[in-house]
Amino acid sequence: MPPKMMAPDLAEIQAGALDRVHRCCAHLQIPNALRDAIGARLGAPQADFSVQFLSPLSDAERENTVDNVDLQDANGAARPPSLFEKAQIRSLFLLADQVAVRLLGQAQAQPAPAAAAGPQQGQAQPALNMRRIKVSDVLDPMDDGYVDPLTPGELNALFDNYRALKHGDPQEEVEPTLEQVSAFNARVVTLQLAPYGDFSILTPFGRRMAKVLKHRAWIPNRDGTYRTVEVPGPDSYDVWYACWRVYACCCLMLRWPAPVGGSLVVVTPAALEYYQETFRQLAFEYAEC
Q: What sign does the CA torsion over 79, 82, 85, 90 have?
């Protein structure tokens, strides 16, 4: 596994000791041949470049680099990287993240100029704040929290995860919206909560279908009569199954970070199929419920 490293000191970064990839590789004692192979795999310039370009890479892009870096043996034949070399590459990405965090903390600690203290009256707020997603609108009606939408790179990485398991893209009626998968990812991966979704709003095509996904239910009164109420959610197994496919797609897109590099699936396809089949049997066996 990658050696445990102390977070780089800010003075080292400011002095230029760890601001370039070649210097970071020297700091980690990564051989020049492996260093150059990493750069070639990333399509980086042959000359040295800033280590901050490594930090934005997604987990999928990093693991693709780790697994597919081109190396040669003593005879000049191509060979895969060893476990130790993979650990060295992951250590380089980890160091790049630590350097980026330190630089970001330094920038945030500096007081902003008075003219840039905040937007003037009449100026628009940053688009990111305007695009925040309310969880109760797309995933859980009882959750009043907000999450940021996934970036295009993060969303593409989630679709790559799905393709790795299903060998193709999800169908249009199965594909979750950006808002749905962003809220689901924040709940399950970031907050480490149970993978829950309310099928009154976690629906195919997002909010377009959630607005009409209601059914009537009969509630008993004290005098023995019944009254009808409108209940949000699927009114039949077929409608439930349509929502379930969106939920299952979200589950297959997510990954938990593994203790030693790589990632772990949140739910296996077999577990999802077993749950769905069990629910189907119960729905037809106790149709009156």
A: positive
